[in-house]
Write a structure and sequence with these properties.
Elements lengths: L1 E5 L3 H12 L3 E5 L3 H8 L10 H7 L4 E4 L2 H6 L3 E4 L14 H14 L6 E4 L7 H14 L8 E4 L9 H6 L4 E5 L2 H11 L6 E4 L1 H32 L3 H9 L20 H14 L5 H24 L7 E5 L15 H10 L3 E5 L4 H7 L4 E2 L3 H4 L4 E4 L15 E4 L11 E4 L3
Parallel strand pairs: 1-2, 1-4, 2-3, 4-5, 5-6, 7-8, 9-10, 9-12, 10-11, 12-13, 13-14
Antiparallel strand pairs: 6-7
Bound molecules: nicotinamide-adenine-dinucleotide (NAD).
């Protein structure tokens, strides 16, 4: 099939490269010329293990352009993969979705047999209540009759996105017309996993509830971790036992300094805003965010217990990405930590194997060092991302405050963990 992918971030880039690998012809579209040049050169614009290789392997089946109209007119299916960030008040910002839909709609005016799939994370009601009317107005055609429209939310995890695409836990297809449903079923047929066909708003809600539940699990693990620390109980051992219950499952029970990334914080906030809009007080969801915001500051409380005056002290940071195996720093827990350190007059020495370039754009004033070992020269070291290489450092003689439970760091002369 001929597929266009609008938006070449983590989701668009992975989706397009993987569909090309399944044999389809893919046209990537982005507004950012740097991303277009990178993809056409066989280089992913983001760091994702295996993605460069996949783009290079399938270079004859893919091309990137800034010409959305040409891309849509040359293809049968368009995936909308643009960003859906938070507004200041936490509600979802649909600017990119609206403008992509309007541009696609204008092409559909002159085009037969096209299907638009919304892959961006959007609140229930958005595909039918926002995207559909824009497409109909701009094209002068009727959705589900003269063009197809469906929802196919994405569940990939950065860092293991290719594996998640080819062997997902499930695929959710939100469709109300047979043609769109069949098309998505056919596209996904090489992927062996349960496929759930449902109404479009249900598909949209499944994505939010999945992220909200995972975020809840993390904040729950952190709150229990805070209690365990005060009681001298090993929280990791507690959750090993708790996770053995098949109704609970051990995943996402690592207590630490909380979740970041482009999805959990913004999706939970968007669900909170939606709940309030429909007259429901989302008590649990609000607490999930509150626990998450307090958690990185606990690392600094521990630091000042060992090093009371941070003014002119050099504090080392191991990890800037919001999690290992990505260069993504969106909502990274390192951000509030760096903010506070700078406010208290500390000098920050930072290292991350992948994310220093992105972090430097936000914080050019801190010192980036070429290796993790260089960070150990600081007066105290904070561990903020659990990169594997931090497991093999020699921490002896150092003050180490650990937010991610790196076992080897216990060799520090002073060692303290946020929840242990
Ligand atoms: N990153 C993840 O792990 C992940 C996982 C699942 C779902 N999602 C969801 O998928 C969506 C995309 O996420 P992302 O992390 O890939 O975003 P991103 O910000 O990394 O990328 C979005 C891209 O869309 C481009 N864009 C915006 N408007 C455009 C337009 N009109 N035409 C062409 N390109 C346009 C931007 O330039 C950018 O490159 C979001 O809704 C997000 O919540 C993300």
């Amino acid at each position: 099939m001929k597929i266009s992918v609008i938006g070449c971030g983590y989701v668009g880039c992975v989706t397009g490269a993987c569909f090309a690998d399944l044999g389809h012809d893919v046209v990537f579209v982005d507004l950012d010329p740097g991303k277009i040049i990178a993809i056409n050169a066989g280089k992913a614009p983001i760091y994702e293990p295996g993605l460069d290789e996949l783009l290079q392997k399938n270079s004859s089946k893919l091309v990137a352009t800034d010409d959305l109209a040409d891309a849509v007119s040359r293809t049968e299916i368009t995936f909308i993969c643009v960003g859906t960030p938070s507004k200041q008040d936490g509600s979802i910002d649909l600017t990119y979705v609206r403008s992509a839909a309007a541009e696609i709609g204008r092409v559909l005016k002159e085009k037969q047999d096209h299907t638009v799939i919304v892959k961006s994370t959007v609140l229930p009601g958005t595909t039918e209540g926002v995207v559909l009317p824009i497409l109909e107005t701009e094209s002068g055609k009727r959705a589900f009759i003269e063009f197809g429209l469906a929802s196919n939310p994405e569940f990939l995890r950065e860092g293991s996105a290719l594996t998640d695409f080819f062997t997902p836990d499930r695929i959710i297809i939100g469709a109300s017309d047979d043609r769109s449903r069949r098309l998505l079923e056919e596209l996904c047929s090489p992927i062996d996993c349960p496929k759930m066909i449902t109404a479009i708003p249900v598909a949209e809600m499944i994505k939010y509830v999945s992220n909200a539940f995972l975020a809840t699990k993390i904040s729950f693990a952190n709150e229990i971790g805070n209690i365990c620390k005060q009681m001298g109980i090993d929280t990791a051992e507690v959750f090993r036992g708790v996770g053995m219950d098949h109704r609970i499952n051990p995943a996402f029970f690592q207590s630490g300094i909380g979740f970041g990334g482009s999805c959990f914080p913004k999706d939970v906030r968007a669900l909170i805003a939606k709940a309030e809009e429909v007259g429901v007080e989302p008590k649990i969801l609000k607490d999930v965010i509150e626990v998450n915001e307090e958690q990185p500051l606990k690392l600094l409380e521990l630091l000042t217990a060992h090093l009371p005056d941070l003014d002119r002290k050099t504090i080392g940071l191991l990890g800037l990405a919001f999690k290992p195996n990505t260069d993504d720093i969106r909502e990274s827990r390192a951000i509030p930590i760096v903010e506070t350190l700078l406010r208290k007059g500390a000098t920050v020495l930072a290292y991350d194997p992948m994310a220093m370039g992105n972090f430097r754009k936000l914080y050019p004033q801190i010192n980036y060092v070429p290796t993790a070992v260089d960070v150990l020269a600081a007066d105290a070291v904070l561990i903020t991302t659990e990169w594997k290489e931090f497991e093999s450092l020699s921490y002896s003689g150092k003050i180490v405050i650990d937010g991610r439970r790196i076992e080897r760091a216990r060799n520090g002369s002073i060692y303290d963990g946020v929840c242990w």
